[in-house]
């Protein structure tokens, strides 16, 4: 199960946290993995997706290595601030990274998948569609917007053998939130909303990602799979 031999995968935001865990698992299952990130990325893949033209450049560099069979969109920008104080620039930056960059990558990579009759697209979403954080209104909105794009695209490309899904984590212990979770009172408030009674680890999401990106997952498309310890209930 989940043999990815012979497949090439491009993963954005794959040098830490959840993206890195998925990239490691894909390599272990035989995929040729291209890792994008701002630090410790594969050579030439350290592009800032918040800059105009960066997504198109990333796609071009990935395709230079050969056809891309799998794309995992894990890179995102999250700015915590009350909605009353969030600047227009901060809203636009989150939309640029979390929506436009992913959309441009799909425009560049999915047509080739369709032509070959196989492809897997996986967007890393967020439990915030169901449980929005009061200090992340723009971030939650960007995730909701991209989830809509994924669902829209899924129906249009399904007949060509391309699946398009979202995998939405709950609270995960990653470098992004390690400082917040170090605050014991905050951590206890978070845990009180998770029926499973624990914070998720990056490895908790690997099996679901492998399923959705594998040949065995070929009849699953247009879905948003929540892996959140029951937080969205």
Question: What descriptors fit this protein?
Answer:
233 residues, alpha/beta, Rossmann fold, six-stranded parallel beta sheet, 7 helices
Describe this structure in words.
α2 runs parallel beside α3 and α3 packs parallel to α4 (137-157). This protein has a single domain (8-225), classed as NAD(P)-binding Rossmann-like Domain (Rossmann fold), CATH 3.40.50. It is 40% helix and 13% strand. The protein is globular and about 50 Å long. It has a 6-stranded parallel sheet, sandwiched between helices. It has 7 helices and 6 strands; from the N terminus they run βαβαβαβαβαααβ. By secondary structure, the protein is of the alpha/beta class. The two termini are 30 Å apart. The chain has helices at 17-28, 54-64, 88-116, 137-157, 178-181, 184-192, 206-213, and strands at residues 8-12, 32-35, 70-73, 119-124, 162-169, 224-227. The mean pLDDT is 95.
Quick description:
The protein has 233 residues and is of the alpha/beta class. The protein has helices at 17-28, 54-64, 88-116, 137-157, 178-181, 184-192, 206-213, and strands spanning 8-12, 32-35, 70-73, 119-124, 162-169, 224-227.
| Helix/sheet category | alpha/beta
Name of the level-1 CATH class: Alpha Beta
Helix content: 40-55%
Number of extended strands: 6
Beta-strand percent range: 5-15%
Unreliable sequence segments: none
| Helix-strand sequence | EHEHEHEHEHHHE
What is the 3D shape?
globular
Strand order of the largest sheet: 2-1-3-4-5-6
Write the layout of secondary structure elements.
Elements: E1 8-12, H1 17-28, E2 32-35, H2 54-64, E3 70-73, H3 88-116, E4 119-124, H4 137-157, E5 162-169, H5 178-181, H6 184-192, H7 206-213, E6 224-227
Parallel strand pairs: 1-2, 1-3, 3-4, 4-5, 5-6
């Amino acid at each position: 199960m989940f043999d990815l031999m012979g497949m090439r995968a491009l993963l954005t935001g794959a040098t830490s946290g959840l993206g890195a865990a998925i990239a490691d698992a894909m390599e272990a299952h035989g995929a040729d993995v291209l890792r994008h990130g701002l630090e410790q990325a594969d050579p030439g893949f350290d592009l800032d997706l918040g800059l105009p033209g960066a997504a198109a450049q990333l796609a071009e560099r990935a395709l230079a290595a050969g056809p891309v069979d799998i794309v995992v969109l894990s890179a995102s920008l999250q700015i915590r601030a009350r909605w009353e104080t969030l600047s227009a620039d901060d809203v636009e930056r989150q939309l640029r990274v979390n929506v436009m960059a992913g959309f441009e990558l799909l425009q560049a990579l999915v047509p080739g998948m369709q032509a070959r009759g196989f492809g897997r697209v996986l967007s890393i979403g967020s439990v915030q569609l169901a449980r929005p954080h009061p200090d992340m209104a723009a971030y939650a909105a960007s995730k909701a917007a991209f989830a809509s794009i994924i669902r829209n695209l899924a129906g249009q490309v399904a007949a060509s053998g391309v699946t398009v899904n979202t995998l939405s984590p709950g609270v995960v212990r990653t470098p992004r939130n390690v400082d917040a979770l170090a605050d014991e009172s905050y951590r206890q408030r978070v845990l009180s909303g998770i029926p499973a009674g624990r914070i998720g680890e990056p490895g908790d999401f690997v099996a679901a990602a492998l399923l959705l990106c594998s040949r065995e997952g070929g009849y699953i498309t247009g879905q948003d799979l929540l892996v959140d310890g029951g937080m969205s209930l």
